[in-house]
Amino acid sequence: MRASRLLFATLRETPGDAEVISHQLMLRAGMIRKLATGLYTWLPLGVRVLNKVAAIIREEMNKSAMEVLMPVTQPIELWEESGRAQAYGPELLRFRDRHDRPFVLGPTHEEVITDLARQELKSYKQLPVNFYQVQTKFRDEIRPRFGVMRSREFIMKDAYSFHANQASLEETYQGMYDTYHAIFNRLGLNFRAVQADTGSIGGNGSHEFHVLADSGEDDIAFSTESDFAANVEMAEAVVKGTRPAATQALQVVETPNAKTIAEVAALLNVDPSQTVKTLLVRGVADEDGKYSLVALVLRGDHELNDIKAEKLEQVAAPLTFASEDEVKALGLEAGSIGPQGLSIPVIVDRAASVLADFVAGANQAGKHVTGLNWERDAQITLVADIRNVVNGDPSPDGKGIINIKRGIEVGHIFQLGQKYSEALNCKVLGEDGKPFVVTMGCYGIGVTRVVAAAIEQNFDDKGIIWPQSIAPFEVAIVPMNQAKSPRAVAAAEELYSELLAAGFDVLLDDRNERPGVKFSDLELIGVPHRIVVSERGIDAGTFEYKGRRDAEARELNKADLLVVLK
Ligand code: ATP
Ligand code: MG
Ligand code: MG
Ligand code: MG
Questions:
Q1: 521 partner at 20 to 30 Å CA-CA among 198, 363, 426, 566?
Q2: Which ligand is nearest to the CA of 155?
Q3: What is the distance in A from the centroid of ligand 4 to the CA of 217?
Q4: What value of ipTM does the predicted structure carry?
Q5: Ligand 3 center to 43 CA (angstroms)
């Protein structure tokens, strides 16, 4: 492409409202513009990158799945059938058409695909089958931020597989796990697959794929030497016994009335499938003025005040104190003492140290601490903020050390089981001629988020440094002294045609701008290879080449040039 034909919308200044580097650079490079909160227009340069990401995803998905395209607008009846019309909450945008019929803007497509499958699939012989699409989603995020990283409208690749049984699901799931590795490798990302919690949704297998970046909103725990990797919720299962200091500090005493998270959720009347991490440390005073303290992690996005003190007492045997002073002596912040007792909500960042102090003090005082365990973990565990607790612990498999890093969730695969197929009555005929409910898996990739995540990992003070596979252009050619040197222009044109013919995605920077302006634009938009064509080079039979990560330019002849561009 000729740069004179491309909308160069580069900005010199960093936009004030962009917090993270990818958002800043996507605005500065002229890839996106904001329309309204959480809504972005993709400019031509951005679309080039987006299309390359989508093309790689499609190529890999086409090896084992079939592409479909489902409507963004979905009748709410389907969501009522699945039970999610109520359960999904305010992220689901609802509206009515001119006939007053209720619809939603799809945040995901389990309902629609299951509706399709129950009509189209008749027999076990058609299974397993895997459908995918690349489609716009809408989620009315409570806090849209970081540009396209957490927007309200975004593009997802979502796939849904249908199976005769769990074994078949597991096989396809493993295949998708491998496909995701192939995709993210081709996208040039530094990523990790981590075990994820399946919550109450059913099924027993889930992995998230995280791009490692400090700006990530998630914490992931992984071993330096083995394959162990888990997201923060899942990693709670490894707290116990993973670090000598923490094990001591978080010494947990088993009590007969410790509950599973499902039991706790039922008692507290909260939804355990939500994934927002809220750590609540709360004290309660009983009638004769003794203070009790219990700690638990709630995974739901619930108002702390919704949970009544007496409910907390039911879920764990409380630690009792003679007075408020005794509570404070354990290093806890003073909380408010109301009719229901002492309430100490603690933000997650500080929670671990508060808990560690609390437990250490409690153990010193010879008190018992009760924790709540997760469903999958038979042992009674005091659940604490994993980030501070397990960082630098040996890995639970004994190999390597646990590191906690920040991750951006770019993909998520999930063994759904029969949650949707059962609710929507999606059955096919079995070998015995009897209908049975199919088993499902789902597999998502945030296509627009991947673009931002790639930038979070690849930038410097001059701008973006694209992995070659998704760069808007692979090579830029700059003719030197364009206005006065027809020789340089002709040689640049010749090289342009030659590289295009060789299959490179080339930008010929024929703009009427000074070389300095062109160079800084090309660095900002992140073109991996830059070639300058000058009279001096033509005479010497060389081109001036500079890789986007190189400190200095160097002179290369044509043959060597073609080698470095590969
Ligand atoms: P998050 O935890 O970041 O809110 P999620 O777990 O809600 O994401 P999934 O339902 O697993 O998201 O959707 C699959 C993928 O879609 C995610 O892994 C992510 O890459 C992408 N995605 C989800 N929400 C957004 C969003 N608001 N903006 C951009 N991409 C998103
Ligand atoms: Mg979400
Ligand atoms: Mg998530
Ligand atoms: Mg997810």
A1: 566
A2: 1
A3: 12
A4: 0.99
A5: 28
